[in-house]
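User: Predict the structure for this protein chain, please.
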Amino acid sequence: MMWGGAVLAVAVVVFLVFQVAVRQLRAGIEQALGPRASVDSLEVGWSGVVLTGLRVRAERPGWPADDELRADRVRVVPALSSLFSDAWRVNLVRVEGAYVSVLRRRDGGLQVVPGLVRPSAKPAAATGRPVHIGRIELVDATVAFYDASVRQPAHRMRLERLNAELEDIALPALDRPVSVALQAVFKGPKRDGDISIQGQVTPATRDADIAARLTGVDLIALEPYLLKVSEAGVRRGTLDLSLDAKVARQHLHAPGVLVLKDLELGAGGGMFGTFAGVPRQAVLASLSRDGRIDMKFTLEGRLDDPKFSLNETLSLRIAAGLAESLGVSIGGVVDGVGGVIKGLLGH
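Assistant: Here is the predicted structure, written as structure tokens:
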């Protein structure tokens, strides 16, 4: 009887402590979401905090979508042991059925859910107490990417069925290697492609070991990056990209391969026309011979060198590979091929 009473007392204490922990976490979440966020319900239980119907409305005008973020369900599972420690530990953050809109401004700057990162929103890390997240899971997410740097209104690309896992996230320092695994579908007008990213990245130091693969991406969806105004359009075609990037002590080494397949160009430009800055006749000759165009390149440089530009280096390396593949001069290739890579990887 005595032992039974002791066990019951311990159970009551554990229950009360857990309730305090999740209620503190709930308060932190409500504060972090900011004034433009709303939720249909926010429940506290043994499994942690569960939000349903999360929505962060966009600040209009200026944002190309109605919402910056939506999620059907968000589950946050705190570690009970961290209640009395100097740092919060969250075992799991699982986000189901999310929608995220991303905007690249005309100047090339990238914005992702600005409503949660502005001064009006105060994340838990801002309280001075570190937060460690064991794992973040994204399940069946959608990302709408709007690029105002290539056309007006902003060009839209869309990723669907995105599933991702991030492990070992230390906030606010971000000084630990974060494991990343991501798979998604790249939507296209005529066909869908696949995207896969695997590896580790340390945001604070920019050290990274990442393997990225794009397979069967519809070139029609990438026309603003491939073509100049005066060039003929793409009727069909796909792009494959393989890139293995390593960054150590600010030094980047990233070999890659870019492949264009089943490419069919629209009429226009005559014998002096171009595609991605390359003489159109050279492209058609290569396609009639091989049915595809393969380009190899390697990115190399120091990220802390102010003279180093990833976009320019990438453009030059791929341009050299494309020129070699087609047997043409490198001069006209740089702008066109560089444009598509900027579109895929960011400014």
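Confidence is low (pLDDT under 50) at residues 1-15, 118-127, 329-338.
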